[in-house]
Amino acid sequence: MIPASSYLLVALILFCVGLYGALTKRHAIIVLLSIELMFNAVNINLVAFAKYGLFANMTGQIFSLFSITVAAAEAAVGLAILISLYRNRSTVHVDEMDLMKR
Amino acid sequence: MSGQYIAFFILSLLTISGAIFMISFNRVIHMVVALAFTFLSIAGLFILLEAEFVGLTQIMVYSGGVSVLMLFGIMLTQHSKVERSEQKPALRIFTFAGILAFFVAVFYGIQKTPWSQEAVDYSTQNNVKEIGVQLYNNYVIPFELVSVLLLVALIGGIIMAKKEADDE
Question: Would you tell me which of A2, A18, A55, A81 could form a disulfide with A37, CB atoms 3.0–4.6 Å apart?
């Protein structure tokens, strides 16, 4: 049996890579994708605990389904905001989106 | 039993290498393709954890939906071939140090915690049927709320992407 900690380790590495990408990349779509990567890491943890947890049952899988749905909605709304912003400011770089900072 | 280990090793290697490639590539399209590989391998990990329905949903929503949506987003906006894709070096080093500290702390926590050694065996029951029974018995209200959320996201996405076109 694969120990639970190996799944948690994979999820941790994915989360750290996603966090690094979300904080350092300039392209807004890559930032959105990095956020999706972090969502996926959390989903791996939920499904792993549905199998290996202290009170393991199906709730983890169902919660990860809800989380996937919310992530898809978030991606759609984020992309709509991005396209609207591109039309107004003609930039997709997050360090040039500083209208509220000036 | 050893086949499970081999599958886990290959899938986790593909997952992590896809993520690392996503970080290190220069062109945006390549990044999205690398991340699509990561999403597919994560679906494989879900199936390895005996969550077949979640794995198939992952393939449909992420590999089929989100990746293509992001490709559309890149095509509809500006995508210069060669560009400075990262923030300033000082910010990058600071972020890397912070994330490294976070990684070490959580890794220490994972290694020190005594996880339960026995796993639930889901292979005897029908995964899709079980999820359906749970969803319609215990989680009806969250299920309906999620449908409302999807409708709101749909309408909001259309309105936000369309509004400025009318003014011009």
Answer: A18
- CATH fold for domain B1-83: Four Helix Bundle (Hemerythrin (Met), subunit A) (1.20.120)
Eight-state DSSP code of residue A96 = G
Using DSSP's 3-state secondary structure scheme, residue A93 falls into strand
**How many Å apart are CA B38 and CA B31, to the nearest integer?**
11
B54/A7 CB distance under 8 A = no
B109-121 pLDDT, tens digit each: 999 988 887 888 8
Domain boundaries, chain A: 4-90
Interface predicted TM-score (ipTM): 0.91
What does the alpha-carbon distance between residue B21 and residue A42 come to, in Å, rounded to a whole number? 20
- Min distance A100 CA to chain B CA atoms (Å): 19
State which fold the A4-90 domain adopts: Helix Hairpins (1.10.287)
Domain boundaries, chain B: 1-83, 125-168
Structure tokens at B165: 């076109």
pLDDT of residue B20: 94
In which residue ranges of chain B is pLDDT below 50? none
- Which stretches within B25-139 are classed as H helix? 28-48, 52-58, 67-76, 89-112, 127-137
Cβ distance of B8 and A79 shorter than 8 Å: no
Q: Which long-range contacts (CB under 8 A, 24 or more apart) does B88-95 make?
A: B91/A23, B91/A24, B92/A24, B95/A20, B95/A23, B95/A24
By C-alpha distance, which of B94, B116, B3, B23 is closest to A38? Answer: B23
